[in-house]
Structure prediction request, 215 residues.
Amino acid sequence: MRQTKTNIFIKLYILSLIVGAMLYFVYPQGSIVLLFNKWHNPVTDVIFRFLTYLGDGLFMAAVGVFFLFVRYYNALFLTIVAVIQTILVQVGKRLIWPDAPRPYKFFSELGVDLHLVEGVKAHYLHSFPSGHTAAAFALASIIVLLYPARRRRFASLLFLGAILVAISRIYLAQHFFIDTYFGSMIGVGSAFLVHSLLKPIESVPGLQKSLLNRH
Prediction:
């Protein structure tokens, strides 16, 4: 039986969690940041500076506006997920771990200079968890859940895109690996939770309309 896109995405994500847990216990805090920092060159600086915007809240909002022209349910789904994952991320950043240092602050206190990409502002605190990573994985999960029967290759591309956003946050010295690891869990968890809660109203006629066919 042909596997759905959702199944492929979940399998890839679970595999990444297992590999990520192994990396976390093998490499000490900050070592992965230093590893990526050694790879800096003009080409990858441009690539990762661009890719990181795929996890920006404005990009997610733009997709939400697009969904209004596709189906109201899609826009509702994305909006609720965005609100939940944003609240969880900000509670973690501002209330639970407000003093969690970003890589730039962490390494500057150790006397280590990091290469910073031109045009990317160095932040000092509120490192845990990664909001960009949470948003990227939430958006990828939303698309997978809304269109579960599409090709498996597309699911792999969505997963790869979310992973690249997470890598970009480390590459740009904005977050540690652990920040992106748990950020991804917030994004995926929020999307699948909301999907299960909204399932009973998914087929409501009014939610099947869009701005293009509201009449």
